[in-house]
Amino acid sequence: MHGDSDHGYDFRLDSINDDDNYNLIALISQTGHAFSLARTRELSKYGLSMMRAAVLLVLKTRDNNATPTEISQWLLREPHTISALLDRMEKDGLIRRYRDLRKRNIVRVVMTEKGRTAYQQSLERKTFHSVMSVLSAEEREQLRNVMTRLWLRVLQEVRHEVPWASTAPSHIEIAERGNAQPQS
Question: How confident is the model over 137-172, as pLDDT tens digits?
Fold first, then answer.
């Protein structure tokens, strides 16, 4: 695969079977993995991982007050995975868990001062901005629409197998556009 940004690329992980759907999904997956590597590199200088930064982002979005269940739904991870992550983050002083005063069976998660500092550091996203700069505003909107449609469709595929699938898009604002709706 070579060329410059003005030419098309041919990314085919399965060139033997010429399965276009598979090749497109592989391209999405490989791109996501490359973004993940770049983001991990960027966050590592602050002692953060992508998941830790994502938890801090969820807490910021939820006014620094979320339950572990809400965090697992937002991040599309199993509750036990988030629980273990929260254990490590609490041990490192990034978050604190406490019992809800009104509903004693509910645990709440908040950022500590150290967590707020880490959140601010996680806002550095130079790599993402650099990579995304190759797209025009129109291409970005097209990508957003296509990815939203794929996101909603794949959630339909896994809704019976994955407990969080039915609640996952609850935190995504989906513009009321005809092309943003899932295709059955």
Answer: 999 999 999 999 998 888 888 777 766 666 665 555
Nearest Cα neighbor of 172 from 155, 157, 158 is 155
Q: CB 117: neighbour CB atoms within 10 A?
A: 14
Model pTM score: 0.74
Residue 25 carries which side chain, given as an amino acid letter? I
* H-run or E-run covering 108: strand 107-111
Q: Which fold has domain 49-122?
A: Arc Repressor Mutant, subunit A (1.10.10)
What pLDDT was estimated at residue 8?
62
Cβ pair 39, 54 in contact under 8 A:
no
Alpha-carbon torsion (89, 109, 63, 59), positive or negative: positive
Within a 10 A sphere around the Cβ of 55, how many other Cβ atoms?
29
Long-range contacts of the stretch 141-145 (C-beta < 8 A, 24+): 145/177, 145/179, 145/180
